[in-house]
Design a protein that fits this description.
Length: about 220
């Protein structure tokens, strides 16, 4: 016990403040579902800015090549792209701060960006999960919080978070399912987030063990 406290006093960044851990599931309509049931919707302005880009892009392609009008339209299109990426990054920073204030350990599934792109088309890059995670990792490091990744081959959606029963298959369109073993009704995203939290928590416990060892050696 004393050893652990010593360790913390040397490395204050290892000291967790809220004592809370959460798992998160990324989605398209809902940006993040938290294991505590909270849902974080994708902001509406993402969609609105996309429409603005589409309009600016159309206007640009209609202008005569080499004309001053086309150059003006090109600059306008670039500006629109910058606007949306700024707004998105701003929202990501705020969300990252908010989540790291609420939780000490944040668990996510490793992203398979290529696979998701094939599955869902361009939407996935619009939401830019990877960009968000990069920001979150940076903020977490600064605040001494931990971002933990769970292997994406772990069946987080198909496993019942209540009893551990694993379904053989679960169609992407199924938003809610009743567990055949324990009859618990599982909301798809929340159930996945809970499983991600459970697996993430087991990883962190291993991490704590490793942290104590060097302190003992000192
Ligand atoms: Zn069950």
């Amino acid at each position: 016990m004393v050893v652990v406290v010593d360790n913390y006093s040397v490395e204050p960044e290892n000291k967790f403040k809220t004592g809370k851990i959460a798992g998160f599931d990324f989605g398209l309509k809902t940006f993040l579902t938290c294991s505590n049931g909270t849902q974080i919707e994708s902001p509406q302005f993402f969609k609105q800015s996309l429409n603005a880009i589409r309009k600016a892009s159309k206007s640009h392609s209609r202008k005569l090549k080499g004309s001053a009008n086309r150059e003006r339209a090109r600059k306008n299109l670039v500006r629109k792209h910058e606007d949306i990426s700024h707004a998105r990054r701003d929202w990501f920073w705020k969300l990252a701060h908010d989540l790291t204030n609420k939780f000490d350990v944040l668990c996510f599934e490793t992203l398979n960006l290529k696979g998701m792109q094939r599955l869902w088309g361009r939407k996935i890059s619009d939401l830019a999960f990877a960009e968000f995670l990069k920001i979150l990792e940076w903020v977490a490091k600064k605040k001494g919080k931990q971002v933990v990744y769970v292997d994406r081959w772990y069946p987080s959606s198909k496993t019942c978070s209540h009893c551990g029963h694993v379904l053989e298959s679960l169609d992407l369109s199924v938003r809610e399912w009743c567990c055949p073993s324990c009859h618990q009704v599982n909301g798809r995203d929340e159930n996945a987030a809970k499983n991600i939290q459970t697996v993430g928590a087991s990883t962190v416990r291993l991490g704590d063990v490793r942290q104590v060892i060097p302190a003992v050696a000192v």
